[in-house]
Amino acid sequence: MFRNVSLTRLLAASALPAAALAFIPGAALAQDAAGVLQRAASAMGDPKSIRYAGEGTGWTYGQAYRPGMRWPKITVHSEIRTINYETASMRDEITLSRAEPKGGGGYPPVAQQKNDQFVSGDYAWNQAASGPVPGPRFVTDRVHQLWITPHGAIKAAMKNKAVLKKGGKGLTAVSFTEPGKFAATVFLDKGGLVERVESRIPDPVLGETIAVTRYSDYRDYGGVKFPSRIRQSLGGFPVLDLAVKEVQPNAPADIARSSPRASRSATRSIRTVISTTRAGCARPRPRAPPSSPRRGTRRTTVAFSRRRTSSTRTGSPNRARSRSSGQWARSSC
After folding, report:
1. Of 71, 69, 74, which is closest to residue 57 (Cα–Cα)?
2. CA–CA dist 158, 33 (Å, integer)
3. Are strands 319-321 and 328-330 parallel, antiparallel or unpaired?
4. In a domain, 82, yes or no
5. Which residues lie closer than 8 Å to 19 by C-beta, 6 or more apart?
6. Does a structural domain hold residue 316?
7. What is the H or E stretch that residue 7 is in?
8. CATH of the domain at 75
9. What integer is the mean pLDDT of 300-316?
10. Inside any domain, residue 227
11. How far apart are CA 77 and CA 57, in angstroms?
12. How many angstroms separate the CA atoms of 302 and 205, rounded?
């Protein structure tokens, strides 16, 4: 029986060239990747949710003042990101303003602008003053941002059966694909912390676009490690440089329940129950007999506690006075 050995030791012992990687079975690479990811999860902590806040500088992607120029600069006064990894949900609360006069993005020249952005599964929306506004074109980008966070990248790589890749000096790399969304390579340092994530995402204008997200200056928050600085570039130009000021692992993050889709589903369920109940109770009411003592009074028989009680009353047909108990009873309708 052969014991499992790491790919690095195998290559060192046999002095194989780098091209020999092509002859290593894919199952062995996946098995080594699983071990690498388990060690990374242990080193970084494994929160079910996380909330972090910071401030810094951003750039409006795709809105260059002239072709070939970097994206227009903005000031990120505050970004609060809440993520629920179990429900694949994320909320971004962003306050920003334009940092230079030239550039697009639809931001006001002077005043600050607040954005409240959500994604849950394959549904994205923005929260406006008038209510939630669906944003299907934002799904891919927000799903990408969720799963390339340090802990999100480890979880996504595990879920999608990542394979081991050559990581470069002092780094280990694993590669995975989030079906229908993006492909990514996660680079881990010697301590098992995520150093950067290189990903490829589709863009309706620029086509497949390269994103590079770097994480540095990790700190420990009750056993969960998180970077103090996040830098991201997209299409070869920077889009974010964020200084993280606050981190809360396992923060309350009931984002999926607040989605418009969940609200509509709950509303439909309630309407279905009401319609069914009304349909069951919409049976013809008997007319009052000619010998009724006075108009508006009829005789009703109500089922209650497996016995029939007879009563004569006026008012709501849903209540009857039981002769035996002297208490008010309510029928199923």
Report:
1. 74
2. 9
3. antiparallel
4. yes
5. none
6. no
7. helix 7-14
8. 2.50.20.10
9. 41
10. yes
11. 8
12. 69
Question: Residue 308: beta bridge partners?
Answer: 303
User: Under 8 Å CB-to-CB from 160, ≥6 apart: which residues?
Assistant: 176, 177, 178, 179
Residue the block writes with tokens 């994530």: 197
CA distance 148 to 146: 6
Tell me which residue has tokens 């990248």: 153
Of the chain, the percentage scoring pLDDT greater than 70 comes to 65
> Which backbone phi and psi does 150 adopt, to 5 degrees?
-50, -50
Task: With a cut of 50, say whether residue 193 has pLDDT above it.
Answer: yes
What is the rounded CA–CA span in Å between residue 191 and residue 188?
A: 8
State the pLDDT at residue 317. Answer: 44
Which positions ≥6 away from 195 have C-beta within 8 Å?
171, 187, 188, 189, 214, 215, 216
Nearest to 97 by CA among 60, 151, 49: 60
In a domain, 232, yes or no: yes
Helix (H, G, I), strand (E, B) or coil at 266: helix
Q: Phi and psi at residue 154, in whole multiples of 5°?
A: -65, -45
Given a contact cutoff of 8 angstroms between Cβ atoms, the answer to whether 140 and 202 are in contact is yes
In the numeric block, the tokens 């990408």 are attached to 144
Q: Is there a contact between 76 and 58 (Cβ–Cβ < 8 Å)?
A: yes
Each residue's pLDDT tens digit, 43-92: 999 999 999 999 999 998 877 666 767 778 899 999 999 999 999 999 99
If we measure between CA atoms, which residue out of 151, 255, 252, 140 comes closest to residue 193?
Answer: 151
Task: Count the Cβ atoms, other than its own, within 10 Å of residue 117.
Answer: 19
| Residue range(s) defining the domain that contains residue 107 | 28-35+38-259
Total number of domains in the chain: 1
Q: Under 8 Å CB-to-CB from 143, ≥6 apart: which residues?
A: 88, 119, 122, 178, 181, 182
Average pLDDT for the chain = 77
Query: Side-chain half-sphere of 240: how many Cα atoms within 13 Å?
Result: 22
